[in-house]
TrEMBL record:
<protein>
    <submittedName>
        <fullName>Hyperpolarization activated cyclic nucleotide-gated potassium channel 3</fullName>
    </submittedName>
</protein>
<dbReference type="InterPro" id="IPR014710">
    <property type="entry name" value="RmlC-like_jellyroll"/>
</dbReference>
<dbReference type="GO" id="GO:0035725">
    <property type="term" value="P:sodium ion transmembrane transport"/>
</dbReference>
<dbReference type="GO" id="GO:0003254">
    <property type="term" value="P:regulation of membrane depolarization"/>
</dbReference>
<dbReference type="InterPro" id="IPR018488">
    <property type="entry name" value="cNMP-bd_CS"/>
</dbReference>
<dbReference type="GO" id="GO:0030425">
    <property type="term" value="C:dendrite"/>
</dbReference>
<dbReference type="GO" id="GO:0005249">
    <property type="term" value="F:voltage-gated potassium channel activity"/>
</dbReference>
<feature type="domain" description="Cyclic nucleotide-binding">
    <location>
        <begin position="73"/>
        <end position="179"/>
    </location>
</feature>
<dbReference type="InterPro" id="IPR018490">
    <property type="entry name" value="cNMP-bd_dom_sf"/>
</dbReference>
<dbReference type="InterPro" id="IPR000595">
    <property type="entry name" value="cNMP-bd_dom"/>
</dbReference>
<dbReference type="InterPro" id="IPR051413">
    <property type="entry name" value="K/Na_HCN_channel"/>
</dbReference>
<dbReference type="GO" id="GO:0098855">
    <property type="term" value="C:HCN channel complex"/>
</dbReference>
<dbReference type="GO" id="GO:0030424">
    <property type="term" value="C:axon"/>
</dbReference>
<dbReference type="Pfam" id="PF00027">
    <property type="entry name" value="cNMP_binding"/>
</dbReference>
């Protein structure tokens, strides 16, 4: 663990103490940091931010290769488009029981599951469990509408998110990819509603 990260975690401990957070909340925060950084605390954004764009793209592509291999969304897609999308992803961790998406809220990002399990509860349909390599929330990237399902973490989940703003930024460079995303989303919406 680096000195900077040790100092950052020390600040988290001081914050919890100052606000006299209950022991169970403190434990959840501690568990969050353990699962987020898996004992290796470093600031990935800071590290990648110092690298050249080609090197950063190579590292991100390598780190996310498992996601790309399992994503029908990326099958037969321009490799440069995939690389640019990957550089826009943000790593997030959710604990068991956390609501990742709440039905009725405005959709601002989609998620890719690197590791973990979630339950999707669509309005008027049966629950669906998604695991490693699955994705959800893509329909709102295209429609910018309200969420039609609630998604809850069943286990510790290591996810990558893609915001609407980042998605639209990439589509400015690759306008033809919007149709590919739309057809996948329409197909998926049709399967969910059955």
């Amino acid at each position: 663990m680096t000195i900077i990260v040790c100092l950052q975690y020390k600040q988290v401990e001081q914050y919890m103490s100052f606000h006299k957070l209950p022991a169970d909340v403190r434990q959840r925060i501690h568990d969050y940091y353990e699962h987020r950084f898996q004992g290796k605390m470093f600031d990935e954004d800071s590290i990648l931010g110092e690298l050249s764009d080609p090197l950063k793209e190579e590292i991100v592509s390598y780190n996310c290769r498992g996601l790309v291999a399992n994503m029908p969304l990326f099958a037969n897609t321009d490799p440069h488009f995939v690389t640019v999308i990957l550089t826009k992803l943000r790593f997030e961790v959710f604990q068991p029981g956390d609501l990742i998406i709440r039905e009725g809220t405005l959709g601002r990002k989609m998620y890719f599951i690197q590791h973990g399990a979630v339950t999707v509860t669509p309005r008027g349909s049966k629950e669906i469990t998604l695991n490693d390599g699955a994705y959800f929330g893509e329909i709102c990237l295209l429609t910018q509408g309200r969420r039609t399902a609630t998604v809850k973490a069943d286990t510790y989940c290591r996810l990558y998110s893609l915001s609407v703003d980042s998605f639209n930024e990439v589509l400015e460079e690759h306008p033809l990819m919007r149709r590919a995303f739309e057809s996948v989303a329409v197909d998926r919406l049709g399967r969910i509603s059955r």
